[in-house]
Amino acid sequence: MFSRDRWDEIIEALTANWFRTLLTAFGVLWGIFILVILLAAGKGLENGVKQGFGGIATNSMFMWTQPVSKPYKGLPKGRRFNYRIDDVEALRQTIPELRFISPRNQLGGFGGNNNVVRGLNTGAFNVYGDYPEIIQQEPMDITSGRFLNHSDLQQKRKVAVIGDGVRNALYERNEEVIGSYIKISGVNFMVIGTYKKKGNGGGNSEEAQKEIFVPFTSFSQAFNMGDRVGWMAITAKDAYSITNLKSEIFELIKSRHTIHPDDDRAIGNFDLYEEFSKVNGLFIALKAVAYFVGVLVLLSGIIGISNIMLIVVKERTNEIGVRRALGATPWMIRGQILMESVFLTIVSGMAGIILATGIIWLVNLQLDGTDTSETMFANPSVNLGVVMVALSILIISGLLAGMIPAQHAIKIKPVDALRTE
């Protein structure tokens, strides 16, 4: 029940020595400030790294062929094999948990010969023969025109979608791109769209804009690939993990290409979901470190409050003796000391939270005016749950800080307290 006299007494006790109270409160303020700032910085780093994935479907795997490492059924070790287009259909029919299976072929690339020509301009670019679903696995912003569709695939249209980097290399600034033609390894393709991929902060964002996408069937026909598939991008449905489906995928491919069941080197793969899970694990560890360091700093402030409350109890020995002589129970004395400790802790802690929130707001204000797509840090923040955890820590800390002084206060005998000068 609210007692005005009790709160007047608490305020009077804490303001009797302003300088001492402020120094004591600063320890808690600084501890909770460090805790919130560390958590916000960790969240900002997490946002930046996840932003670097550029919206890529993280429940995906990229799979390619490698020389077999074991002889099997009369076939020698070291032989090479190729995926076929019917492998894609077999995967779709056998493993319904897969959402997208995109066969891919690739031509040229960075460091290669100039494989794309338009007029007098030439360039060396990655050219991919793809299915339309690839845009769901490697999201990109279509800046003009459109992306590939199944009609392009079925009719084997010689059309292409080019990156902004290709556009800048082959076209003048204001030149019309849609409907124009580029020559890829001697074959003409009509440009139907342009795209821009988000930067990934890993140094490859510029190269990501220098790619060309053409229909898989047109690529196979134009460059004599037949039914061969260079590699595949495979994405599992949301309810399933591609990591758990890998063994089933590999078993099917091995059986179709007469590969030893224990040959783990014949199929190369990059499991994006597994790598993404490792990144998430790293951020969980960073959050744990932030809590550990923040709580340790906060603990030093709590120790300071406990020491000051012990001094306050000693200074108020006569007062405690009088109150005990007038009938105050040990619980009333204990409650008074605990309330003072909790009140000082919460006020100083809330000041630390407000200060940290102000700093975070200023950082976000600064980041709003910059392009964070190329950085590893974006939108540092703390959610309401973190604030509630911080408040819980403050309340518990205040109780712990006041417990020892409170116990010391109730052990003082009224007669001894009244004799103290």
From TrEMBL:
<dbReference type="InterPro" id="IPR050250">
    <property type="entry name" value="Macrolide_Exporter_MacB"/>
</dbReference>
<keyword id="KW-0547">Nucleotide-binding</keyword>
<feature type="transmembrane region" description="Helical">
    <location>
        <begin position="342"/>
        <end position="363"/>
    </location>
</feature>
<dbReference type="InterPro" id="IPR025857">
    <property type="entry name" value="MacB_PCD"/>
</dbReference>
<feature type="transmembrane region" description="Helical">
    <location>
        <begin position="383"/>
        <end position="404"/>
    </location>
</feature>
<feature type="transmembrane region" description="Helical">
    <location>
        <begin position="288"/>
        <end position="313"/>
    </location>
</feature>
<keyword id="KW-0472">Membrane</keyword>
<protein>
    <submittedName>
        <fullName>ABC transporter ATP-binding protein</fullName>
    </submittedName>
</protein>
<keyword id="KW-0067">ATP-binding</keyword>
<keyword id="KW-1133">Transmembrane helix</keyword>
<dbReference type="GO" id="GO:0005524">
    <property type="term" value="F:ATP binding"/>
</dbReference>
<dbReference type="Pfam" id="PF12704">
    <property type="entry name" value="MacB_PCD"/>
</dbReference>
<keyword id="KW-1003">Cell membrane</keyword>
<dbReference type="Pfam" id="PF02687">
    <property type="entry name" value="FtsX"/>
</dbReference>
<feature type="transmembrane region" description="Helical">
    <location>
        <begin position="21"/>
        <end position="41"/>
    </location>
</feature>
<comment type="similarity">
    <text>Belongs to the ABC-4 integral membrane protein family.</text>
</comment>
<feature type="domain" description="ABC3 transporter permease C-terminal">
    <location>
        <begin position="292"/>
        <end position="414"/>
    </location>
</feature>
<feature type="domain" description="MacB-like periplasmic core">
    <location>
        <begin position="21"/>
        <end position="249"/>
    </location>
</feature>
<keyword id="KW-0812">Transmembrane</keyword>
<dbReference type="InterPro" id="IPR003838">
    <property type="entry name" value="ABC3_permease_C"/>
</dbReference>
